[in-house]
Amino acid sequence: MLKLSLGPILWFWSRQTVFDFYANAAELPVDTIYLGEVVCSRRRELKPDDWLDLARDLKACGKNVVLSTLTLIESEADLRRLRRFCEQDEFLVEANDQSALQVAIRNRIPFVTGPSMNIYNTATLKILAKQGLKEWNLPVELGKEALEQLIKELQQEGLDLPAEVFSWGFLPLAWSSRCFTARHYNLPKDNCEFRCLQHPDGMELRSRESQELFRINGISTLSGSRYDLMRELPDMGRMGVSTVRLSPEHLRMEAVVRRFDQVRRGELPATDPLQLVEAPPCNGYWYGRPGMDLVAGQQFKTGL
Amino acid sequence: MELVCPAGSLPALKTAVDNGANAVYFGFKDSTNARQFAGLNFNDKRAAEGIEYAHLRGARVFCAINTYPQPEGWEQWKGAVDRAASLGVDAIILADMGLLDYAANRYPHIPRHLSVQGSATSHEALSFYKDNFDIRRAVLPRVLSLDQVRGVAKHSPVELEVFAFGSLCIMAEGRCYLSSYLTDESPNTRGACSPAKAVRWQETPKGLESRLNDVLIDRYGQGESAGYPTLCKGRFQVEGHVYHAIEEPVSLNTLDLLPELQALGISAVKIEGRQRSPAYIADVARTWRHALDNLEAGTDGFTVEPQWQQTLAGLSEGGLTTLGAYHRKWK
């Protein structure tokens, strides 16, 4: 059966919100939980030790826990923070940048790669597998066709490298040195007053015709539509995907997880779309189309 | 410091060499490089002619194969590396780990430069590429401040090349999927950002509109000058305000920083713009050649001549330039 994971929180939430979120997550039918700050080095509601404590608690609840690292590394301070996670061997580490790869490899710590790692072909996977890669995420802009081929080639090479697919949530699309939230408030990045805390789902960026294009979230830009591959789970099961990643949101996440859990068990009836939240759905990347597109999904069959 | 100039065509290559480029970079006529434009780039015959022209005049030639091959493209991308090798280029600019590995094993004698698309922003990331693929040089993404460049340079295991002038990419390169989200092509997959095939211009009662795959990127009132609809440089709404929410249409210009870049031990400055005309290349190359010569002479200290800035401003998007991320306050 497909495994379910909760990706790292991409937004900036208060300390208490984070603790509450994971207290709830501990009870949910997810197999893996990714913990840590992956977007902005200024977000420090939780210190590295807080994340490690949380990781131990969730592990005690039977969850597989992975520590995630920053996507854009810009300074020595960022590297110090990175080393804190890449130099322990209690938990697996998710590398979201080549800096993390280097530190993990040097310390002989096994690692997984997140969706921002530039992995587009089997040759790349082979190089990383030799150095400790245990599982990898498909870049969000790739779809079914490339993934199917990659999985096939890995099998031909006799490599056991489970694949994870970002399957639900706002897609992380870009990281910048500039903070777009601070820019909106006319604040310098270094003195941003942590305005992201006021936007637990980011800020909508619309065209002048009110089309939802992107979501601004500090230095990162996410999709304006919510990626939803619930209907594609049967596809993934057939082609040998290991894990389905759901990206945390601060409201109604439990309902999302439970729905995906039902679907992976083949329990959802054909006519029961997931309509929980107020953003248009998209799935274009999976079908090799512009990411924002919505392609009519297939009907559900029983028994994934 | 070496002056590295773009060559989108044979005339542009010759112009760059004639106007003082120490090195030029080019790509093949397909999506194996990050500037895939109709009518641009080189076939093997033209490339051979360009390389001969440059070599006879003491300039080096780099070949950019800096997009990311997917399984179906693997043989084609590998073939591009073979072509570059047999043409006798002086270095290959690569981003993909699989291709870097192939080039390092198959052609160990040809230097490998890490493309800006390789997303290396720290000395640890540079060490990863050095240890695994023995890269000689890396091009740094345009997201670092000068202080951060200093930090990277201090511990860098390889030569560094930084962007000096041209279009400003404000997202960490090699990891920006905005273009494939709105269209079906991105720099990583197809070597294209906001591809021309998806662009539509329309005169409307509200003004001139630019669209990308039907998405309204900008609308221009009378007297406003319209620019190419690169999606991150449009005007959008955030909480009811309409503004350049991501970035203004400006160009990067680091002329003022040359002495500092030199002091940091930066090996080369890179001019962006393989999509530009030979006339543009001539003006930019000549200006930067003057500046670098002036810097090397170093007699009375380096001063930026007003005429250089004037020339460069005239060649910039919207006539505006910025120090970009090099200047911390910009962020």
TrEMBL record, chain A:
<keyword id="KW-0479">Metal-binding</keyword>
<keyword id="KW-0831">Ubiquinone biosynthesis</keyword>
<comment type="subunit">
    <text>Forms a heterodimer with UbiU.</text>
</comment>
<feature type="binding site">
    <location>
        <position position="196"/>
    </location>
    <ligand>
        <name>[4Fe-4S] cluster</name>
    </ligand>
</feature>
<feature type="binding site">
    <location>
        <position position="192"/>
    </location>
    <ligand>
        <name>[4Fe-4S] cluster</name>
    </ligand>
</feature>
<dbReference type="Pfam" id="PF01136">
    <property type="entry name" value="Peptidase_U32"/>
</dbReference>
<keyword id="KW-0004">4Fe-4S</keyword>
<feature type="binding site">
    <location>
        <position position="179"/>
    </location>
    <ligand>
        <name>[4Fe-4S] cluster</name>
    </ligand>
</feature>
<comment type="function">
    <text>Required for O(2)-independent ubiquinone (coenzyme Q) biosynthesis. Together with UbiU, is essential for the C6-hydroxylation reaction in the oxygen-independent ubiquinone biosynthesis pathway.</text>
</comment>
<dbReference type="InterPro" id="IPR051454">
    <property type="entry name" value="RNA/ubiquinone_mod_enzymes"/>
</dbReference>
<keyword id="KW-0408">Iron</keyword>
<protein>
    <recommendedName>
        <fullName>Ubiquinone biosynthesis protein UbiV</fullName>
    </recommendedName>
</protein>
<feature type="binding site">
    <location>
        <position position="40"/>
    </location>
    <ligand>
        <name>[4Fe-4S] cluster</name>
    </ligand>
</feature>
<comment type="pathway">
    <text>Cofactor biosynthesis; ubiquinone biosynthesis.</text>
</comment>
<dbReference type="GO" id="GO:0046872">
    <property type="term" value="F:metal ion binding"/>
</dbReference>
<keyword id="KW-0411">Iron-sulfur</keyword>
<dbReference type="InterPro" id="IPR043693">
    <property type="entry name" value="UbiV"/>
</dbReference>
<dbReference type="GO" id="GO:0006744">
    <property type="term" value="P:ubiquinone biosynthetic process"/>
</dbReference>
<dbReference type="GO" id="GO:0051539">
    <property type="term" value="F:4 iron, 4 sulfur cluster binding"/>
</dbReference>
<comment type="similarity">
    <text>Belongs to the peptidase U32 family. UbiV subfamily.</text>
</comment>
<dbReference type="InterPro" id="IPR001539">
    <property type="entry name" value="Peptidase_U32"/>
</dbReference>
UniProtKB/TrEMBL annotation, chain B:
<dbReference type="InterPro" id="IPR043692">
    <property type="entry name" value="UbiU"/>
</dbReference>
<dbReference type="Pfam" id="PF01136">
    <property type="entry name" value="Peptidase_U32"/>
</dbReference>
<dbReference type="GO" id="GO:0051539">
    <property type="term" value="F:4 iron, 4 sulfur cluster binding"/>
</dbReference>
<keyword id="KW-0408">Iron</keyword>
<keyword id="KW-0004">4Fe-4S</keyword>
<dbReference type="GO" id="GO:0046872">
    <property type="term" value="F:metal ion binding"/>
</dbReference>
<comment type="subunit">
    <text>Forms a heterodimer with UbiV.</text>
</comment>
<dbReference type="InterPro" id="IPR001539">
    <property type="entry name" value="Peptidase_U32"/>
</dbReference>
<keyword id="KW-0831">Ubiquinone biosynthesis</keyword>
<dbReference type="GO" id="GO:0006508">
    <property type="term" value="P:proteolysis"/>
</dbReference>
<feature type="binding site">
    <location>
        <position position="169"/>
    </location>
    <ligand>
        <name>[4Fe-4S] cluster</name>
    </ligand>
</feature>
<keyword id="KW-0645">Protease</keyword>
<comment type="pathway">
    <text>Cofactor biosynthesis; ubiquinone biosynthesis.</text>
</comment>
<keyword id="KW-0479">Metal-binding</keyword>
<dbReference type="GO" id="GO:0008233">
    <property type="term" value="F:peptidase activity"/>
</dbReference>
<feature type="binding site">
    <location>
        <position position="232"/>
    </location>
    <ligand>
        <name>[4Fe-4S] cluster</name>
    </ligand>
</feature>
<keyword id="KW-0411">Iron-sulfur</keyword>
<comment type="function">
    <text>Required for O(2)-independent ubiquinone (coenzyme Q) biosynthesis. Together with UbiV, is essential for the C6-hydroxylation reaction in the oxygen-independent ubiquinone biosynthesis pathway.</text>
</comment>
<keyword id="KW-0378">Hydrolase</keyword>
<feature type="binding site">
    <location>
        <position position="193"/>
    </location>
    <ligand>
        <name>[4Fe-4S] cluster</name>
    </ligand>
</feature>
<protein>
    <recommendedName>
        <fullName>Ubiquinone biosynthesis protein UbiU</fullName>
    </recommendedName>
</protein>
<dbReference type="InterPro" id="IPR051454">
    <property type="entry name" value="RNA/ubiquinone_mod_enzymes"/>
</dbReference>
